[in-house]
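hi got a favour to ask and not much time before my train. below you get a single protein, a line of residues and a line of whole numbers that encode the local backbone shape. could you go over both lines and see whether the tokens make sense for that sequence. a few lines back from you is plenty, here it is:
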Amino acid sequence: MPLQMKLSAITLDCPDPLGLAGFYQQATGLELHPKSDAEFAGLNGEGGLLVGFQRVDDYRAPSWPDLTVPQQLHVCFKVEETLDQAEAKLLELGAGKPEHQLDEAKYRVLTDPAGHPFCVVSSG
């Protein structure tokens, strides 16, 4: 019988937890956890899932796609808007867009303000 485990949190290393939480809060609409501070910030997700951001001294951003500094985690988000619309909104919020894109018709690879790569995929 498999162990009964429920995912309760995903935490990203970063240099500025409140700043990165703010980026994802604006992008997703999730609420900031009330105990968030400069060392650890969290967003309350669906079904009790916490998306956390912890401060790390000497943080080094992942280097995608060459992986000199591995990405270690890759998050994908479904979007209701077109990929062009979602990309434009995320870039306005502070996301970056690497030159290397694998299949822009299907998904977009972007980076959050701390350099973590993530994808947006159309839900349609």
